[in-house]
Amino acid sequence: MGMTMTQKILAAHAGLDHVAAGQLINARLDMVLANDITGPVSINEFDKAGFDSVFDRSRVSLVMDHFTPNKDIKSAEQCKKCRTFARRFDLENFYDVGEMGIEHALLPEKGLVCAGEAIIGADSHTCTYGALGAFSTGVGSTDLAAGMATGEAWFKVPPAIRFNLTGQLSEFVSGKDVILHIIGLIGVDGALYKSMEFTGPGVASLSMEDRLCICNMAIEAGGKNGIFPVDDITKEYMKDRVSRPYTVYEADADAEYEQTYEINLSEIRPTVSFPHLPENTRTIDEVGDIPIDQVVIGSCTNGRLSDMKAAAEILKGRHVAKGVRAIIIPATQQVYKDSIHAGYIDIFLDAGCIVSTPTCGPCLGGHMGILAAGERCVATTNRNFVGRMGDTTSEVYLASPAVAAASAVAGKISGPERSR
């Protein structure tokens, strides 16, 4: 029996000719990542284990993105611990205020992750990098500590589910709608500890930003990882970012998949995930009349330049509805800078939005947009669990930047078509 893309990458990194689902392996790592929440815990475990060196100072990344700029004394201490560790080992990839971005947008942008690599991060959305044809997954802080020291991690080789994509996206439909549609279809545990492998002719119609968004939320379906094939779009994205050689892996024709889902991209409508699980999806036509208090456009899922563009095109010449707070968060400094040059920031400010420095901020209930009791928010983030963005009686509705921007103007959950 042949191997899937994920299995081929894991086999190569384990020094094996073949691996099968369920097999336990030890694999070498190309990148190890932590942030200002998980980094300090990993550092504590690193020191507790008696490690006195990192395996490669160019392959350990620490990104201060969750509570930065620091919102309180505790978050300041968290970052201080990471800064001290980075200086101690002269880490090449330490990103703090002024240089940092939201980690899962920053690492691909910087070319720190690429096709064929094996990557772990002490953050569940590390699965984002599968968009580049890499195996990437989130781990606990103890495994992260061991990875920083040894450059290796153990895995149980995951079985795979194939999503065969056909057709192409309609106007105002994006990768966010695709992954919300899929999660609504299979549920939040539909891909539990499985590799979500995206294939088919529809892949060619998806931008790199669409793919990054889709893989980012593989974890919301319970997936071990999400992964796309490496095509011309992938190679073009990596061309000016990645200077090291990389390997392109392709699934064998006889690779085994536990299940195959046929997804016609042409049939997908703008989709909204209702509280309090990402699987509670409805198309924009089924939403009904739901007034809102806040909109957040940003996060590691939807804070890239194409997301800023989608929001700006809808907000241009319009104004946020009275009583609605609209918060725009570019995912990286480069996205922020490019948005300025493209005129998007002027559009946002003229529309009555505020624009933040790159940060995870409100996505995890950190800062920059916490919800009070009973408030509702349309967010381009990736989770809408109880209390995720503030008070336990608040509600988060997950949507694309186009739907979020249209909702900000309407003062209620609204499709982008209605905003014209």
Structure, described:
It is globular and about 60 Å long. It has a 5-stranded parallel beta sheet with strand order 4-3-2-5-6, covered by helices on one side. A 5-stranded parallel beta sheet has the order 16-15-14-17-18. Strands 10-9-8-11 form a 4-stranded parallel beta sheet, with helices on one face. With 420 residues, it is α/β, with parallel strands linked by helices. α2 crosses α5 (141-150), α6 packs parallel to α7 and α10 (305-315) crosses α12. Helices cover 30% and strands 18% of the residues. The mean pLDDT is 96. The longest helix has 16 residues, at 73-88. It is built from 13 helices and 18 strands. α7 links the parallel β9 (195-199) and β10.
Offer a quick outline of the entry:
This protein is α/β, with parallel strands linked by helices and 420 residues long.
Secondary-structure blueprint:
Blueprint: H1 5-14, E1 24-28, E2 31-35, H2 38-48, E3 60-63, H3 73-88, E4 93-95, H4 103-110, E5 118-121, E6 135-138, H5 141-150, E7 152-156, E8 160-166, H6 175-186, E9 195-199, H7 208-216, E10 225-227, H8 232-239, E11 259-264, E12 271-273, E13 281-283, E14 294-297, H9 299-302, H10 305-315, E15 325-328, H11 333-341, H12 344-350, E16 354-355, E17 376-379, E18 395-398, H13 401-410
Parallel strand pairs: 2-3, 2-5, 3-4, 5-6, 8-9, 8-11, 9-10, 14-15, 14-17, 15-16, 17-18
Antiparallel strand pairs: 1-7, 12-13
Helix pairs in contact: 2-5, 6-7, 10-12, 10-13
